[in-house]
Amino acid sequence: MDLVDAGRLAAGVALLSAASVQDWRTRLVSDRIWVALGSVGLALIAAEAFLTGLPPEHLLILVPAAVLFYTTFYGEELLTEEGWHFRPVRIGLFAAAAGALVLEGYLLVPRSGANALLFFRDLTIPAMILLGLGFYMTGLLHGGADLKALMAITLITPLYPALAGLPLTPMDPRLAPALETLFPFSLAVLTNAALLFVVSPIAMVAVNVRRGTVRFPHALFGYLVPIDRVPRFAWLMERMEGGRRRHQLLPRRTDDRRETLDGLLAAGAKDVWVIPQIPFIIPMTIGFVVGFVFGNVLLSLMSLGLSR
Fold first, then answer.
1. pTM, whole model, 2 decimals?
2. Is the terminal CB of the chain with fewer CB neighbours within 10 Å at N or C?
3. Which domain holds residue 92?
4. Residues 247 and 286 in one domain
5. Per the structure, how many domains does the chain have?
6. What is the largest CA-CA distance in the chain?
């Protein structure tokens, strides 16, 4: 619905732009921005259901969506570095979320095909939040802000928007229902943002060629700097391990920066390879807008390639 999708675009651009400014300046984004964006998203899901006459059972999706989203910001984790903690309220919330999801499926799936499709589309909301957590735990999403942005975008745009003739490259209507379920809009935003990084290795190599510090594959991802002038916003591509200097193309978030640098200095290192901490919220914001205008760029490119 144009009115709801217009609200999604306005809220998304406004709050993601604010987050981008914070990310650029400090590499930190206030949780209040993500909570606001996700809350608007939940409200718009309910508003859309009311305005379009969707089955009331559809609103059950708000329970798992809200629980998974808000427990990211509030309350104490069940599993911490100290081990497992029994937290009855949190466990009860997760149980309620699972129960609401099962109940929605029970009420919608046996009915018409449209209702079953609605449930499976709803299912992408908790699925994308859990997928985002998986991306974060495996290092595919480096910062906590990136994870929270993906969660909030999932809530503000649970389905592909259709606003005033947009997107310019719509999906094939015959494939759209399956693709929208298997490749949700928030995942499209993530891939749209990732595509912007395709040119970054070229830029990194150019920087290293100019400096005369070309070494592969390091030069594709970072650059060499004096060890006493490591930029504030950079990941270290080297560390000491077993008394030896080791290189790492995927730096670990848990590494202590000062301890790592002290170890390299003690080993006689004069310089170190670093990866610049590019504020990923900026390309995600661009990817969000691109998603509204052009849709799923990756799928469009693949379709273009297959049609030739």
1. 0.83
2. C
3. 2-197+280-307
4. no
5. 2
6. 70
